[in-house]
Design brief:
Radius of gyration: 13 Å
Order of helices and strands: EEEEEEEEEEE
Structural class: mainly beta
Strand content: over 45%
Shape: globular
Number of helices: 0
Length: 115
């Protein structure tokens, strides 16, 4: 399984971005998918996750209320809509997926939020 993340960029504080992660493979709908981020000099942190059916979602406190994770299993794609972005959201964002553990990771997409 290969994961290809996209959608990052430079945005002003208060703005929005939608990240996408397209997966190869036929078992995408069975995977839990998640987004993680890593800021410079910091550890990789959990951002959000979504069950295979899309019915269950989880968010870190840092993005809860400002972000929405969703998926389109017909397109093998998971999304992360981020609103009201803050400078502290600046990081490389990674998508990951797996049947139980996060076995597969994408290459990351840079999100930079200017103040």
């Amino acid at each position: 399984v290969q994961l290809q993340a996209s959608g990052g960029g430079l945005v002003q504080a208060g703005g929005s971005l939608r990240l996408s992660c397209e997966a190869s493979g036929r078992t995408f709908s069975g995977y839990v998918m998640g987004w993680f981020r890593q800021a410079p000099g910091k550890e990789r942190d959990f951002v959000a996750s979504i069950s295979g059916s899309g019915k269950m979602t989880y968010y870190s406190d840092s993005v809860k209320g400002r972000s929405t994770i969703s998926r389109d299993n017909a397109k093998n794609t998971v999304y992360l809509q981020m609103n009201f972005l803050k400078p502290e959201d600046t990081a490389v964002y990674y998508c990951a997926g797996g049947l139980g553990e996060y076995d597969y990771w994408g290459q990351g997409t840079q999100v930079t939020v200017s103040s």
